[in-house]
Structures are given as structure tokens and as C-alpha cells.
Amino acid sequence: MVETQGKQxxxxxxxxxxxxxxxxxxxxxxxxxxxxxxxxxxxNGMPPVSDVAIVLLSAGAAERDALEWLESHNLPTGxxxxxxxxxxGRRLPAQAVKAGAADYFAxxxxxxxxxxxxxxxxxxxxxxxxxxxxxxxxxxxxxxxxTESDAMQQAxxxxxxxxxxxxxxxxxxxxxxxxxxxxxxxxxxxxxxRQSPFVPLDCGSVPESVHFDLFGQTGDPTGGATAARPGxxxxxxxxxxxxxxxxxxxxEMQAELARVLRTNVLRRVGGAKEYPINVxxxxxxxxxxxxxxxxxxxxxxxxxxxxVVTLRLPALRExxxxxxxxxxxxxxxxxxxxxxxxxxxxxxVERFLLDHSWPGNVxxxxxxxxxxxxxxxxxDVSLSQLRAAVDVMRAAGSDQMMAEVRS
Length: 407
What we know:
By secondary structure, the chain is α/β, with parallel strands linked by helices. It has helices spanning about 25-30, 65-70, 90-100, 110-130, 150-165, 180-190, 210-215, 230-235, 250-265, 290-295, 300-305, 320-335, 345-355, 360-375, 385-395, 400-405, and strands at about 10-15, 35-40, 50-60, 80-85, 105, 170-175, 200, 240-245, 265, 275, 280-285, 310. It is built from 16 helices and twelve strands.
């Protein structure tokens, strides 16, 4: 059996790269949204794609360029634009909204808010386009997974259990790029929690603020600058909080999170008031959680609460035959997004794809195919360009590569 995406295209997240800052941040967008992120350089304007859900102006310190871009480009009707910069003051955000932006966020602190804005915009776009009636679960919850392998189909069969029992916490285990975010989102969208928020948090990207991101904070009783704000566990009320790399949370905070899961009650940072919550937690680990518990990286109490269901997603090299299925689907999608003729894969290219180990899994495969396809003659995937793209990934160094293929 092969599960593929339907003929209707997924809502697009267009990332306009105005500077080199945050260049490796947007890799997770494609994974979590079914490879529906389109990254363009600022001088290229809006790409010729349909079903745009939201435009992100990735500005870094170049916020002034974002204002100029907003003033010189016409966005599709009803499509919001958000500016992502580094300024935590009030003047630039106000200017961005005046220029036509829906909102302004500063990284790294506002990364959870960026994620929420993206997922909300994609959900609105799906509803507006009639992909399914409001409140209806998808007919094929894992239609975004392309597979014929027994290993992956066994994982999906177990994931169906997560849809049925929507109050059970879960831990998804797998290497970077194995689709943990895609599965978590699909489980949420098909469960009885689908009408409430799906809120993702990359615990490893902002470890110094993860406590505030999760639990929120109380306001300054003296009237100071600290404002009260809810955490994501409150924002996601009734829905799902997806904690990517849950083991990256500082160990003492893991114990507090375990208490919240056990009691369904939280206290904001700096406060004593208790807030009842109703959320489902789906977390991810990159390797066997029991080993991480033994090494002291994962709190045993937290794993006891989240490990009711532990679902392992196989690496691409373990999914016999899926490499070519996925590669054929990806090159067609990439060609369509960039206005290129759809290429066929030669026998030499297919052999190369089968022989490579793909340590970054599907995310690495997609990155390599994008580079190779754009540098090959139209209608072709050159073997030499494919080899060169793999070499670029290797030469980038392990840290940069793993950031690029993070799922």
C-alpha cells in the first residue's frame, strides 16, 4: 500500500529571506506542515504558488528592509504577513504593523508564538479552501506519509491508537528527519482534540526560556515591566502541546512538567495560583528514552508520565523501497513549486539514492533533491549535481547538517 498526499496542494508558508539570520530556523516548517514551506530571497518577490497561508519576513537585524518589502509588495487577499526580527522594543513592531504586517516577533524568545501563528494561518487556509468541513477529521489521517515499508506501516498502525485515545500522552522516538512532527500533527488533526490548538515547541532551541514558554509567568505586583502571560500549556487548552526534543528541557523543569501531567494543574513562574489544564502532551526523543533516563538526560518521572505509549519511527534506511517512492514524489512537488518541468529519475540516479545511507533521513533527502534539481538542466536530475549536493551536506559539518535536517 502507498499512502500519498491528495491532489489538492497543501497551504504554503512563504519565507522571504531578508538576511542570513535565522537561515536554519525554517527547516522545521516544511517537516511539520508536510513540506509546504517555500523560501525565497527578498529580490524575487512573491513566488508563483497557490494557496499561500502566511508570509514570513525573516529579517533578523534587517527590520527596515522588511518595512520596505511590505510597502513595495502586494500580498494576496487575506494572506497575513509577519515580520521576524530581533528588536524587543515597541517602535519597530508598531511600524511593521503600520506598514501592513499582521504581527512582529523577536527571536529567540518569540519562537513559540511564531510557530502558533504559522499553524493557525495554515488551519485557516485549509478551512477556507474546503479541504474538509470544520470539525471533521481527515479521511486518511496519514495521507502525507509515502510508504510501502512494513516498518513504517507498523508505526502508523500504532499511531492510529493515539488518535483513538486522545487523552493519552505519548513519546515519539526517532532520528532527525524521520517525520515525528508530521505524525504528531496528523494525530492531533484526526483526534477529538482537533478543534483546539496544536502548539509546537522546540525545547532545544530556547532552553533558557523554556520554563516561561511552557508555564507562563505572573505579572510584577509592583507595576514593573514584567507582564503576566500564559504559557503554552494554557494556550493549548483542550488541544495538544508538541514538545520536540523533550529531553532538552533542564532536568529540574522536567520534574515540574511531570507533576503537571500527573495532576493536570500548573503554577505560572513566580506565582502560587494554580490553573487547571486539559492538554495532551506529545514529546519526542532522538534515541531510546530508557537509555536517556539511565544517563540522567530524561527525568524518570517525566518518562513515566509520557511513556504510556512510545512510538518508534524507523530511519529512512530501514524503510526498504521507500527512498525511491519519496524521491519521485518530492521531485514532482519541487518542480511544481519552482515552475520547472517534472523530471524523471535515471537508473544511475536511482542507484545513487538507494546506495546513500541518508543520515538526515527524509529531510536530508529533500534538501539534497532541491539543490540538485535547481542546478540541473530543466526536466532532469543530474547525477553529478546530486553527488555535489550530498558533498555539500557532508562538508557543512555535523552540527550545521543536523540543524538543517532537524525534524
